[in-house]
């Protein structure tokens, strides 16, 4: 391995080691939360709703829950990891090392991405025991999930770098991210909403991500899939470049 | 070739505060160089600029000939930093702290393992190697920070107030390590408030005040320049507090 490869591998290992050392909080808790959603909406509410677009209600909801688990964990891992290290100034050990801005950004991104993926996969496995969950379009599902995970990992990095206190991270997650996810159609189909809410949902970017993942699992199409994928790829790429610029300039990292 | 060449370094913070003003400093390879000055003089800012933790506003920094900005990979590889703050990652164990640091500097696994073992023994941390860093005492954290700075065998070791807040025994122990490392060929730049130690340890000293290097030389040269008998008195002259000189205080007490 070259020195650069060792650096990157170590930086990623540090991020994974952080969330694995507190796995009850970082993996166990979100898994339980998602499982509770499935139980409540599947067992309790699901019995009252026959089918939604030809699918059992709980089956319709699970793709959105998997996407939500991946997204929120990718985001919160990176935002809190970076902010914690900034507070302790432990991040100085990495910033004063020969690691390049690209290596640092990729490593922080990987930490959240991998935690989100772990929770997402465990949710999928757990859900598969409870219901018969199809995977209709794997060629859309896999890039869709990867791009979504990468996007939210980038968003977590951005908030972690810019945040000055834990309240900033909490605000972004509670008042921006979660409402957008919940109102993006995790628990319902936007086509069932009355106007103007159906139209308003079209302006929520997360609606397209959920539709993409739902299409990957169920084959049910509510938005233009090709355009959604292209849009997600472009936005994720732009966010990556923006974060790279922040790392290169040292914004809020180096004084 | 110098270990550290600083030319015309200026650092202005976004708040408008100018922490460094056109600073030039040259530290020879193998030197044990002391940078002294009152709080807020610009010592830590100079160190941060040299190690990539702060972005200089103007000027040039070269570490063993490598530009600290354009050629940062080579420049930072040559530097080990033991900062003033106990900036240890609380999620890691003592051994992991050293292992991860070595990894950040591109050291292969076996080399990291051997070097970490050696440093854990040197700094009497072997028994604590599997403990989380947050459980360590202040003195042990200070040892770990020095061990971490030495992990990748830097050619230039920068110590920012390494004995701040440690007991006498550990302070003497740390100075012993510092001298030993310097004898083995590592260049050392240190800042300290213990002037008598700087006087004993450092072969060259610079005074920094209000963001500028105001005097530089050996301890004897600096004392002579200010017309006093000790480095401490020279320092007090520099900061305009010569009434605090031990000789003056003794006169008043008697």
| Rg for CA atoms of chain A | 19 Å
The third-level CATH topology of the largest domain in chain B is: Rossmann fold
Please outline the major beta sheet of chain A.
2 strands, antiparallel
Give the structural class of chain B. alpha/beta
Largest interface: A-B, 32 and 33 residues
User: Which strands sit side by side, in order, in the main sheet of chain A?
Assistant: 1-2
Order of helices and strands of chain B: EEEHEEHEHHHEHEHEEHHH
Quaternary structure annotation? heterodimer
Helix content class of chain A: over 70%
**Mean pLDDT over the full residue set of chain A:** 91
Overall, the morphology of chain B is: globular
Sequence of strands across the biggest β-sheet of chain B: 6-7-8-3-9-10
Distance between the ends of chain B? 52 Å
Number of strands of chain B: 10
Q: Kindly name the structural category of chain A.
A: mainly alpha
Catalogue the unreliable spans of chain B: none
Radius of gyration of chain B: 19 Å
Termini separation of chain A: 32 Å
User: Which range does the strand content of chain A fall in?
Assistant: under 5%
What does this protein look like?
- Helix content of chain A is 76%, strand content 2%.
- Chain A contains 10 helices and 2 strands.
- Chain A has helices at 3-21, 23-45, 57-88, 91-95, 101-130, 138-162, 166-182, 197-201, 205-218, 225-249; strands at residues 51-52, 55-56.
- Chain A has a two-stranded antiparallel sheet.
- In chain A, a hairpin with a 2-residue loop joins strand 1 (51-52) and strand 2 (55-56).
- In chain A, helix 1 (3-21) crosses helix 5, helix 5 crosses helix 6 and helix 6 (138-162) packs antiparallel against helix 9.
- The radius of gyration of chain A is 19 Å and the shape is globular.
- Chain A starts with a helix and ends in a 6-residue tail after the last helix.
- The N and C termini of chain B lie far apart (52 Å).
- Chain B has 10 helices and 10 strands.
- In chain B, helix 3 (94-104) crosses helix 4 and helix 8 (219-226) crosses helix 9 (231-238).
- Helices cover 39% and strands 24% of the residues of chain B.
- The longest helix of chain B is centred in the last third of the chain and has 16 residues, at 168-183.
- Chain B is α/β, with parallel strands linked by helices and 254 residues long.
- Classes of the chains: A mainly alpha (255), B alpha/beta (254).
- Chains A and B meet through helix 1 and helix 4 of A and helix 2 and helix 3 of B.
